[in-house]
Write a structure and sequence with these properties.
Strand 2, helix 6 and strand 3 form a beta-alpha-beta unit. The longest helix is centred in the middle third of the chain and has 17 residues. Helix content is 24%, strand content 17%. It has ten helices and 13 strands. By secondary structure, the protein is of the alpha/beta class. Helix 5 packs parallel to helix 6 and helix 7 packs parallel to helix 8. Alpha-L-fucosidase is responsible for hydrolyzing the alpha-1,6-linked fucose joined to the reducing-end N-acetylglucosamine of the carbohydrate moieties of glycoproteins.
Amino acid sequence: MSTREERTRWFLQDRFGMFIHWGLYSIPARGEWIRGNERMSYEHYKTYFDEFDASRYQPREWAKAAKAAGQKYAVLTTKHHDGFCLFDSKLTDFKATNTPAGRDLVREYVDAFREEGISLGLYYSIIDWHHDDYPGYGDKAHPDRDNESAKDKPIDFDRYLTYMHGQVKELLTNYGKIDIMWFDFSYDDMTGEKWKATELIRMIRSIQPDIIIDNRLGGNIRAAEPEEYAGDFFSPEQIIPPGGILDVKGAPIPWEACITLNDNWGYHSTDKNYKSAKQVIRTLVECVSKNGNLLLNVAPDAKGEINRESLDVLRDVGEWLRLNSDSIYGCGGATLPKPEWGRFTQNGNKLYAHVYDRGIGPIYFEGLKGKIMKARLLRDGTELKVEAPWMAQEYSDIEGGAFITLSGAKLPDEMDTVIELQLW
């Protein structure tokens, strides 16, 4: 069996992915937790099932947008907490093939993204607000959590687990090679072996031995000897870990921050708080500078289209990456401390200075005097001179540093000017 290091090697090269939240909740357009948040009845929620037509769903357009944005892998919500399946599961009627859409939408996603050379991830929620044997009353999020009529409802949780494991098997059997299995999520006592997690992982690896799996089945991925189901990578949500993710011995663990483009995962028609391309670029750089990845979410609307606001951000991020990709793909954290003017990423003897703050005078590189063979602007190859200004000789405390002067009062790229330093 392959090791975590072997399985995640490609993942730590690719660094940037697209998360896609799409389902029945895209119709009311108030976010993906709507059924739970609003304690919505099944009868009410089924009206969206009866309307779901995916009439403008063109996954090839999604795939082209991801590729143009420089995203190397994608993760699609095949089933969210509401239990609705975008795939043609033989284990339920609550699926896209029984809606007006009338087809297996995961199949079309897989084919489209594979055609563009983008690695494939499938999200699957291990909780389920639709299944009769998933406990509702007293749960922290279920629509029936306060519903007295559901209090004494008989539950056969093993039957639910058979269903859940069976759907995961379908996803990993019916679509060829899948690169990422992205589970969501454990909570309270619903964690680890409550899901028969070891059995689930062994089944997954018997079908897809090289697949990488997130850490949301439970367990402690940071332990000296993590559980078999603890996952291949850590998945912080809506936060960039201040120091990256390390295990108890201080060794880096693969991780990926999942971040929304606005303030919701699922389509929310009135949420216009979109992050700028500059924010996304700097977030990506921050992740890589801490040996992590960025999984950036988009939320197609009820018809299946990614909106213009999202596409514009993706396009601008992609243009920056087109010119500066060497500072992201294949890179990780540098051995140098974070500089006051920005960030460092590194790949071998190439150190990438991501300069955010122009400041006054030359850019100062602490500890690099005599260690820089070449310096250039990454975006166009412009040669930059490494030379100490005469005034620097007056200060003994900066003798060990190197200086590079950028002409003009503004940075060449105000979003992130990247200087490639080839070290001796």
